[in-house]
Amino acid sequence: MKSSNNFIAVIIIILTVYWSYSDITPTVISDEKELTATDFSLKNALFHLKNISKKTHHTGSPEHKIVQKYIVDELQKLGLTTEIQTQTAINKKWRASTTVENIVAEIKGKENGKSLLLLTHYDSNPHSSLGASDAGSGVVTILEGLRAFLAKNKQPKNDIVILFSDAEELGLLGAQAFVEHHPLAKNVGLVLNFEARGSGGASYMLMETNGKNKKILSEFLNSNPNYPAANSLMYSIYKKLPNDTDLTVFREKGNINGFNFAFIDDHFDYHTAQDSYERLDRETLQHQADYFTSSVNYFANANLTDTNSKTDYIYVNFPFVKLLTYPFSWVTPMFIFALLIFLFIIYFGIEKGKITIKGLLKGFIPYLISSILCIGVSYGLWKLILIIHPEYADILHGFTYNGYQYIIAFIFLNCWILFYIYNKFKSQKTAELFVAPIFFGLVINYFITQYLPGAGFLIISVYAALIIFSFLVFSDIKKNIAIILFAIISIPTIYMIAPMVHLFPVALGLKILFVSALLIIVIFGFTLPIFHQQNENNKWQKITGLIAIAFLVIATFNSGFSIDKKKPNSIVFIQNSDTKTSYWATYNKTLDGFTKQVFKGDYTEGNLPFVKGKSKYNTNFSFHKETENRNFSTSEIIITEDETIDKERNITFIVNPKRKINRYEFFNSSEITIKNLTVNGAFYNGGKKFVANEGTLLIYQMANSDKNVTISFSIDKNVKPDFTLSEVSYDLLSNKKFSLKPRSEIMMPMPFVVNDAIICSRKIKL
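Structure (tokenized):
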């Protein structure tokens, strides 16, 4: 009987995990016959997506203009007047620049309040991403969402501004150009931004605000989304991370609040040639559509004059209520009250003989041992797996194709460790063993009150554990009934925490699996009375061990590459035009059939000494090899101004390409103070004086409207500038001076790095 009740409790836990995911994921409507003209049609959205994601369409590419025209044509079919905002922009943080071509349209409202801005970007990542998810999904969500909205033939109260920004992938440049230069930006009261960092999974809501979140969160809930996926821990972590979206520009430069709606599962597709129409999860697109429909219908008629607040709210997905919310100010009192209840129960437990001081102290031993083992094994085993599978290092974002299988394997491995350790203490009283998990839960929540109040909802799990603890101390309830009761009480804990177990390694890479281990320890600790079986063999240890082994075997079996799981690789040709020497280089740690066609015989490990730049993940070239110099012509540099006034030297020069150049990278070899730096007339840092450290000075992506690049700046007359210019073209595989074999069907260009490129580097003589 006890074992059957234990099985029922486990079924409750499994169903709760499923529930926590199903509540934040919509089901795709397979038959759209019952939809009306005012309903969002996934079929229509997918039709658009197929058309705009046929080829890579990064800023400056021919396909970029084709996608731009497609979007403009679709907006005009809806009766909207469109505008192409052409403006050079420079991002100070990323030292990035280009001449953007934003697509702007507007729906006039009945009143003169603040406007609602609908935002996504239409450029794909250079140079090989198809951009179906990032951010083609946002483009088609807005296009089809607008069609359904306008079909109601009802004028909104607020103006609705539509912005398909350009050059987001280069450094949020389109958003910056709009905020700083477009007149419509001055009246924006709220932004809805649709983004992606993968190709599937639930779409999470992340807010951007310079103030507190109470009002903007309340308005989000008033919009009544059907599948809200959000919690304030993600919000707090997001604010601390360097990751940015277009919405960040609106908050930082325009003091405008807004919402990001973004999905991150299947992270291995992010910025790759596999970010395709076929691989975008349809349920994920439906989730974006649900956010769009509920948000636009509400905010188009809401008061957007002031969305700031003086209060921050905790919020978390919670059973039956979608999002549970309460003020940050409650976090500390809730912690103190929980601590007092904890001490109260321990005191009476000792008084009633249910707990002994020796027993509760002994109960810390298995919790500490299992915690150290789970975290240590998770961290160390992943390091070992990377040694066994060195090819994983070439997946730069750190989430492998078999990543979900590893997550499952590590979850059950941690469970096996926990069961194994606690089986050694099966004769000890459950109440005594339960003290340690609650104590450490309180410790975690103390640090939360001090450093991460957005995670304040975790105190709810402590309260659930305290209720179970009180039953163990004050009640003589039969164990077979208690097990099921404890599982029911634990539902909020499992519901809140379970999705985060997979969320962290997906978002931040499998190197973070030890964080998942920590969350497993927390869940296990708070549900310990369900599994602690005194004087009985715990069969769950064997079951979890077998599942862990099975999924490790499955992950190993699926560690290779295939048509659907392509291997990323890279080759670039680098010409040092000053020394007239040339080299092959690659970012790959593991060479394959594609890279070995040039890296055979003698080659050197490490970076080239004259190469200044690094990839997004700060990785240098892994190997290089000297090769025949092809004598590529370099751009003409014309100095149009070089005069000294008082103590300042003013320099202006034009870079005229002699072949098709996709981007220019300017580096300085020593620290230098620069003033009035402009690129094609646009000021860097507002023209203010700044100190440029050694390294990247500026990266300029050539846009379709660019013929050349004009650089102007002022320096101290006694300082000799030491600049290096790298000219990058993405034509290595098509250039007639080479005869490289193309990649096989199980390979693709490595993302996040300059790839398939010819790079000509030289000093600029000024």
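The first helix runs from residue 2 to 22. The chain has a mean pLDDT of 93.
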